Amino acid sequence: MLKALYTKYKPYYKENLILASPIVVSQIGHMAVHIADSVIVGQFAGTVQLAAVSLVNSLFTIIMVLGLGLSYGLTPLIAKQNGGKNYSECGRLLSNSLLINIISGILLYLLLHFGTLSIIGHLGQSPEVVAYAKPYLGLLAFSIIPLMIFQTFKQFAEGLGFTMQAMMISIFGNILNIILGIIFVRGMFGIEPMGVKGVGLSTLIDRTLMALVMGIYVMRSKNFKVYLEHFKLYAIDKIRSAQIIRIGAPVAMQYIFEISAFSGAAIIIGTIGAAPQAAHQIAITLAALTYMVASGIASAATIKTGNYLGQKNFTDLRRSAIASYHVVIAFMSCTALLFVLANTLLPYLYTTDLKVIEIAAQLLIIAGFFQLFDGTQVVGLGVLRGIGDVNMPTFITFLSYWIIGIPLGYFLGFHLDMGVKGIWYGLTFGLLTASILLFFRFQHRTRLLIQTSFN
Fold it and tell me: Any idea which of 29-43, 215-229, 254-268, 363-377 has the lowest mean pLDDT?
């Protein structure tokens, strides 16, 4: 039976993995920035500054994924137009998306600078943690503008199936981020030690250079010449902008509901103490790394689904989507095993504080289970996004994380005195709910497409 199943889906496994692999690396690039920040600060600056990184990343990530989600509205539209061989429309969509994302980046910067910075001292956190957090957040806030520009060109290229270049840019950008982060945090080559502020500066430099290089590549490469014939930054129209926002805005809310649930959990855990908060940062960073792999698989599923939709090939659309489910379940099962078996070793990558390591080791066992559901739910979102179904999935994410996950976690953590583990159990159940409901939604919508094609 397994052999017959493998034979049936083998062509789709290969196609999806070839497309997904570079996307996975570039997706990890976003998370690698925060992982590098955590490791560098944890090793060279201590537990209090690591807790500051946890607090800032929890707040910044909420705003960042709002921008990232909005930029993802371009990809399925590009994939669909490319599948239908309507190449000139791709350049027009890029024009509108670039302007939307530049404006969004500026607005998100203003929100972070004037909003988040003003409330960070009123969240019940340690005054020492807040003092370190503010300058770090200020630098990260400015980096969101070049990040949105990079995302525009990245999503355009990936929507057309050119995924390798964004991967290479992400790799070199993150190497640069690590090198500069160590130099700035420790204080090397005559530079005064900056502590946590140093990783904020390295991130800003990294994202600015990545945006510049990705933009030059897309605008000058002959691979995109046929698509850019009608690219004009000033040629913005309401119809195409509405198309992008109609998909991008709900996708942004999907990410907001999920990421804000984890960020809210970090803030709640911060009221327990700096050690649990630092342990949460370690465990959630490792789990987020595997999530980025699943997210890359989901992005490839979005592209392939959009291509098949443009071709009106609904049978292959469904099979390709199911193959993506298979791939993500296999990967997440392997990493779940790693988390469980190495739960006492992995925290040493971040800190030598034995109290933090003990708590993080317990959380990694829970993370091993919930990432299975995290992987399947993000693939479900990716497939549905590819066929333009974004509104109901947005409601499902809200229900799963904010009506079920966070309230249940708070109840288990504080009312049943389970502490940080109780909060993580609640998040796990929220992910389980989302993965089941999104799979049912996928089954319904794809079967409906196939039935419609035969009528």
Answer: 29-43
Of 264, 284, 257, the closest CA to residue 398 belongs to 257
* Predicted TM-score (pTM) of this structure: 0.78
Residue the block writes with tokens 């670039």? 98
Please give the residue that has the higher pLDDT: either 226 or 208.
208
pLDDT(15) > 90: no
Measured between alpha carbons, how far is 356 from 133 in angstroms, rounded to an integer? 19
Surface-to-core class of residue 10, CB atoms within 10 Å of its CB (0-12 exposed, 13-18 middle, 19+ buried): exposed
Q: Is the Cβ–Cβ distance between 133 and 120 less than 8 Å? A: yes
d(CA 227, CA 44): 47
**What gap in Å lies between CA 49 and CA 56, rounded to an integer?**
10
Burial of 391 per CB tally in 10 Å (0-12, 13-18, 19+): middle
Q: Could you tell me if 416 and 378 are in contact, meaning their C-beta atoms sit under 8 angstroms apart?
A: no
Dist. CA 206–CA 9, nearest whole Å: 39
Count CB neighbours of 349 within 10 A: 14
Q: Tell me 224's DSSP state.
A: G
Q: Which two tokens stand for residue 218?
A: 């897309």
- Assign 377 a pLDDT band (cuts: 50, 70, 90): very high
Burial level of 98, CB count in 10 A (0-12/13-18/19+)?
A: buried
Residues 141, 161: Cα–Cα separation, whole Å = 31
